[in-house]
Design goal:
The complex is a heterodimer of chains A (about 350) and B (about 100). Chain A is of the alpha+beta class and about 350 residues long. Chain A is built from nine helices and ten strands. In chain A, the strands form three sheets. A five-stranded antiparallel β-sheet of chain A has the order 1-2-3-5-4, sandwiched between helices. In chain A, α5 crosses α9. In chain A, β1 and β2 form a beta hairpin. Chain A has two domains: about 110 residues, Phosphorylase Kinase, domain 1; about 230 residues, Aminoglycoside phosphotransferase (APH), C-terminal lobe (Aminoglycoside 3'-phosphotransferase, Chain: A, domain 2), CATH 3.90.1200. Chain B has four helices and no strands. Chain B is elongated and about 65 Å long. The two termini of chain B are about 35 Å apart. Classes of the chains: A alpha+beta (about 350), B mainly alpha (about 100). Chains A and B meet through β1 and α9 of A and α2 of B.
Chain lengths: ~350, ~100
Amino acid sequence: MNNEAQLGEDFIKYYSDLNQEPFSLGSISRIFGGASRETYRLSVFNKDLDETRLIYRRSQASALIETDQLTEYSAYMAFQNSKVPVPKTIAIEESADSLGAPFIIMEELLGEAASPFDQAAYSPYEEELGHQFWNILGEIVIKDTNDPNLSFIPGREFEGPSWKRELDHWVEVIRQDSFGVEPILEAAIRELYRNPPKDAVKKCLVHGDYRNGNFLSKDDSLIGILDWEMAHIGDPLEDLAWATSPIWCWKDHNRPSYLIQKEKALTIWQEKTQIKIEEESLAWWDLFACVKGLAIWTSAGNEFISGSNTDPINLFSAWIPGDIHLEIILETLEEKLIKNET
Amino acid sequence: MKPDLNTALMFCAQEIGTLFLPLLEKEYDQSRLGSWGGLMLLSSLQIDGAADNLNKQNKLMMEWLKRSKKSIQSKTLIQKIEECESMELPDIKISTLDNFNQKT
């Protein structure tokens, strides 16, 4: 029996116990992509042969970004039956006792996840999906952070400015995982520490990786926001800058996430959140997005070079997005230099 | 003249995509092998210019360091720059150029 079949057999035992009725396994298949979790799609049947389709996300022995399962699960719990579409949660196991690694189980949403590098991924529904995408980000910002489901989300206890918590965290990742020195990245880090943004207008829930590729759509409907493992409490501008970063719309910089025009996106966000965007602070978070991105790509490269996870996605991440973020940093710093000289 | 390494990689990537990928049953395995094929294709396009790019970058950095030397106060840093200036590379392997890149 191969690993996947064994995993399916163990899973069905667990799932039957959980529901206190016998289930049988229809199919199990691993979904490609994402380096921090192993994600499986399963089809299971009860004794009346009613089918349920599930998503089973388990921690990898080597995880690119080390986050616990509870963070992601808490975010999903907080948005059940809300204006922020998320999959229905079923179970979480934080220990490795049941199935060999911590995991979460959710119902599968039947939609498409696009590549963030595919310019035409959402055609011809860019307009409809764009409005939903930016409105939903606004909904996340206005979410009451006192929701008990969010009590385990990181960052709640931090009393200092959100920018410092985030910058310190990602610089630490870079220091731990770099095999060499990247001068362009170091210049960006220095710039960010020297010129911090204004304090956050409010502290809110931050998705942490809100962008194209991390949501499911079906025709003109956005049906699920996924991949909440980097969620935390922080500055509302963080997700906004990440989602509008040119890396996610490399071939059309003014159409973030290859949806609607940036200006329109920012207007929708401001109307929903009732937050007026402070341009200099947003510019800080734009540059921060590159540093955070490079921390993630550096970690991916480290996983690959060290041999702890030779998934090609780690090689791709270190090669391509890494170069793109360096290029964006260079452009940004050069613009600043010219602005300061004139 | 022997076939280039980049040409060999390109054909290998093509065979992965057309010959071996369809033989796999699982979606995950197909996607993973497809990604390797794509990365190999990318490598084939990059490999020819990789050493030249590093070499150019190293030269640019050295020129910049030389230009900036007069405004640097740290003696240790100046000493390090001078060490790099006088360094002669034993060969022009990518690994040698990369090591020098990190030194500068």
